[in-house]
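Working notes for the structural subgroup meeting. M.R. asked for a predicted model of this chain before we commit to crystallization trials. I am recording the input and output together here so anyone reviewing the notebook later can reproduce the run.

Input as submitted:
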Amino acid sequence: MEIRPDELAERISALLEGDAADLLRELETVPAADVASAAKHLEDDQVVDLLKKLPEEISADVLVELGDEIREDVLERLTPREIADAVEEMDSDDAADVVSELDEEKAVEVVELLEEDDRREITQLLTYPEDCAGGIMQLEVVSVREDRTIQRAIEKIRLAWGDVREDFFYVFVVSSEGKLVGRLPVPRLILANPSDTVRSVMDEEILSVQAELDQEEVAQIFQKYDLPSLPVVDREGVLLGRITVDDIVDVIQDEAAEDYSRLAGTDEEEFREDSVWRKAAIRLPWLVTGLLGGVLSAVVLSRYEDDLAAVITLAFFVPVIMAMGGNVAIQSSAVMVRALATEEIRPRDAVRRLTREVGVSIITGLVCAALIFVAASFWWGDMRLGAVVGLAMLAVILISTSVGAFVPLAMDRVQIDPALATGPFVTTSNDILGILIYLSLATSILGR
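Returned structure, recorded in token form:
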């Protein structure tokens, strides 16, 4: 039965006032993720009190599952010793993430309080950027040498099991120099003859990633090959650690949030900011870009002042033309960005995909142009005006779709995030083009 976070939070709040043993009995069968969800309905001081009353291994799991913003506030209220005790119970990747969220002075204190092995692991992981394979890998990994017998390999795994807190599906095989040379599925390991060597039963074909590879590319590899885990190696091929699928789920969520933020012309970092000044600083560049685009649109309009004064009806359709240009550009660019993100487009497919988008824009443009032609003609009793609006609508849809599809491809080609193309840049440029096309057609067809 699913536990409602708000109801669990009420029970926890009541139990915090009593004996810690009663609290532990209440939560001993509740998953850490559910406790963390309930903690979002508690005050920060209550969350700190909860973590202190739970056993270290449980409080560590709850701390990992807390959202970034809540965890940041809670970490400020915990002492370095309390954080260090929790960190020592975490997997190395989670421990490094928690330490990286601390201010520099407190992080140094926490690391100094850790046992030597934990200190070395966290220090190693913190050398990698957080958005690369090395930044999301965990160092707890079961590996055996290729020249060992199956019996020796099983003995090694039994000894190493205490360091591997999660299920594993493969035993990674390394050379005497520590280089990754293969993998051994657990079922095959169990069924193999104890006297056989690991080399004789391992899979030599194995996917791996270098520690410097971007996390988004790592996620694409997981998705493409349906992997439960993936080994990470250095540039010489030495096994460093592994990335598990639960980490990739977090990566996909983070990347989606980042792209969604860029769609709006902001930044995913804004969601973690408390300062209104910093939030404004993140939004202003794109807003200023849109403002400049609006000024340029106004300049274009001013050049056709006489035409607008002579046929004031033209002005009534300006918002329609601008809105349709922005709408179709956003649709086209969103489709293209998604295709690039999921690797549905290969370089040789770019022209074909652009052609398809243009084909779609011709159909939608003709339908919308016909509708606006009929509406304008009957509304104002002037088919020439209807022709201006209809032709402008068709041209704007064709051009806006082309721009919306081409710009993400161009940005991807020069290794700039295509998600940036779907923000104010595309809509602003299409507003200017739409006005220019509309009034140029009006001048040509209606005359001055």
